[in-house]
Amino acid sequence: MSKSLFDKTKIGNMKLKNRIFMSPMGTSGEADGSYTMDAVNYFMERAKGGAGLIITGANVVSTKYEPLPCTALSNFHHVERLDMLIDRCHHYGAKVCVQLSPGLGRQQFTDPFTPPYSAGSVGSFWFPDLICKPFSKDDIHYLVEKIGYSASLAVAAGADAVELHAYGGYLLDQFHSKQWNNRTDEYGGSLENRMRFTLECIDAIKKNVPDSVAVLVKFTPDQRVDGFRTLDEGIEMAKILDKSGVDALHVDTGCYEEWYQAITTVYSNEGHKLDVQKAIKEVVSVPVLGDGKLLDPQLAAEVVEEGTLDYVGLAHQMLADPYWPKKVKSGHTEDIVPCVGCNECLLAGFSGKHYYCTVNPTCYAEKEYALPKPDGTERSVLVIGGGPGGMEAAITARRRGFKVQLWEKESRLGGTLWPAGGPDFKADVLKLIKYLETQCYKLGVDIRLNTTATEDNIKGGNFDKVVLAAGSSPVKPRIEGIDKTILASDYLTHKATVGKNVVVIGGGLAGCEAACDIAPKADNVTLIEMMPDILYTAQHCLNNDQHLKNMIKERGINVVAGASVTKITDSEVTYTKDGETFTVPCDSVINAAGFRPNNQLEDKLEEIYDDVTVIGDAVSPRKILTAIHEGYHTIRVME
Which of 117, 149, 170, 187 is the catalytic position? Predict the structure, then answer.
């Protein structure tokens, strides 16, 4: 019998309306660990969008051994907000699985002086010289009891399922792993011993939940790091878990050492975990859940139809667009807001903030940032610039019922998204251009391409609001021979080609990505950066940083940091480093030295119009997130 994405199914005794689930992601909580009301609204919006199952982020069962990392389910007072969350998701037909965790162990966000607890006496992740304290057997027994108690609290809150957090290099996975578990008691040594803690947690959950509540385990059969767990051992783990009486297995890959193997980046291939998930599916009798860049509707459907996975998970795509399931079911896939893999959401969480999503300004602020409904008020808006910020402002203005003109000097919309999406490994960014452009046309934005805003033509428009979203232009540093270079943006938009021996000046994101794009087709690529290291000032998440640096290494790019280029000729580049002068033979030089804002019209616009806002790179060259959010909010707050 063929399977489809929208089958009605069961995990254990839990009935589900489709095979789409929201993958677990950490959620900020109140000071006591309870869910915030913003979190309740956030989950409710994903239920409203059509997901069959929502799995919460990890809820820790105790703070005895480590500080509170996110949300907690460790005492009776945590039940109230969790109950509100679950009840409101139920209104839309979604089921809720509460993920429980005994802790982060060596992964906890500790200080350099306080050793965290772990399975064995190994270095902590964030401070490798800080040796962890192994849990005593009494400590383990305490946490097992707390897992059972927290499972009972999840039932009290109305949970449909409970998932044990046993993956990704977190505490239970540290017990599973030889490289972190150097114990000599019954919790160390053989695979069966290393899994004992997890199996005891499963038993504790099963003793504290009724048969109507499904029990899931999320685990990592392949850590995909040299010297770490491989799939052979992972298959044996899966067989042990299958026999433990759980109702389903949630299969992951990776750990923090190569974090992008677990949490997808813009550089990840589609379905990059499917080989591991398929291997586990073939050896177990229970349903298998999986995620890992399965956001393309056709791929998601094929994965289910072919039997590779029983349930398809979406994580960051659910932040970008909670309505992915409904839009896929109705056939309106052109309206799906695409996740671009930037991991700004993750960066925000690890910076002590709540979630931010680059392409969804209302993420985690669904009530506060909701757009006022059109009330018939006549407003006229001019947007100068058709990049991400300008298009978002135009779309938002039309959704408020305002008249909008969008002027773009080029022959197409997209702005700097075109070079950002130029490399074949960043095609996700091109999807964002297509989405924004489609919404502009569907909503009836008056788009005027090949129209440059000047001091003369900005007059007399009777606009109530003007948004200057003119972006930025490449900087030409004062280097002898700089005019012989090719702009990174010209190379990435296929306006220029390069030879076989290439020097890239500038080791920021644009320079590093251009170098990675060039390297497979070139003989030699050298990246020269003034700062002490490449990506030194890039404000992006650790997994994106790891992934891009690994690509640079794998593609054989020569990196010269802490160096200043002094001269460029047709055949070589000269630079100084540590007081010495060097030359690099080359036939092409890429200029990726940075950008400056296109804000020249700001003062003149403010002389003519009462309400003028400058957004995005026209303020200063920053991120897609700042452009889109500023475009949205400048229209949202219009009165």
Answer: 170
